[in-house]
Amino acid sequence: MIRNLTEESHTAKKLIIKRDIKLITPFFIPSFSGVNDRNFISKIKYLLPNIPQRCILISAYDYYKFNIIRKGRRLFEDDFMFKIFKDRLLFLDSGGFEIKIISDKKYTINYYDKIIDILQPDFIVSYDCELNLSLKESIKLNLPLYKKNYDKIKVQLFHFKEGDIKKELSELETCLLDYSGTFDILGLIDNELGSSLIQRVSKTKHIKKLIEKNDLNIPIHIFGCSDLFSISQYYFNGIDLFDGTGWFEKLYDFKLMRSLSKCNISNLECDCTICKNVDWENITNPELENMVSLHNLVGYLSFFDSLKNE
Question: What is the pTM of this model?
Fold first, then answer.
């Protein structure tokens, strides 16, 4: 049994957001990012068709970088996109994470709008590539996108800043009430919530209580969280949705809830559908990378099922 850091508990539930989109929480969304990854195109083309999860998250900035401004191989060919996305739910992130690293001033909300039109995702995440906006300013910036894409599920990011938490929560409460119905999910960034897990869980508890106090039915999505123990603690304290890139950056030992170097895969005692069918001693490095990623994703399915049964 997974130990809970607090005395509160949270049970699995069916999350019906709109348009008959139903997710049994907790739910993990594998996310991709092309930042500093030379093998990104080959990796995404191999992994996308084989991901066992129902949802995927990609960055609009990656589409912009590989399909709009770069000559040569396109990242998402039209027939490839149709085949992959027709049976899956697509979360489209604006690319704020990538922009913070690359600092591309030519990429604007107008490009994001264009890419939404092309990809037609099921979920759109608020454009957050303009730094240091307040939550109210961010919502106002995204309102035209939200109104245009009224049929899509909208995820509004709330960037916690260092400072007075009471002031931050007050701003959040005001915006949740003033813009009630404008967006469907509240998004928080894992590493912005605090330097320790206890700090991060504490802030999400405050936010969850604030939402419940005002009788608002808004699920919370933690972005950038792949760590198994962190996910379990967030979930036990009311968080429903998670995404992250750790599934292709690390090797996870799901029995001991820890991350390892990928070179340890041959010594890992695992009988998942991936590991029992792979000869780890005679595999090429690109194959190793892909198989480790699939091992992680299959493991996430089992791990989240165990959370639902806690």
Answer: 0.90
